[in-house]
Amino acid sequence: MDTIIKASLGLLIVILVAFTAIITYTGYTETAYRNTISGTYTYAWTITTDSPLSNVTLFIPVPVDKAGNSPMVSAFSSHMVNGVPADWDTTLFDTGKSTLLKVTTPAIIPPAGTSAQHPYTVTISSESTSRTPIDTRNPVEKSAMFRPVQALNENTCPPATAGAGSRCYLYATSLYADYTTSADATVTVTSSVDGKNTWDVFGPHSNEYHAGITLTMRGPNHGWAVPAGKLSYGTGSYEYPFGT
Question: pTM to 2 decimals?
Answer without folding.
Answer: 0.82
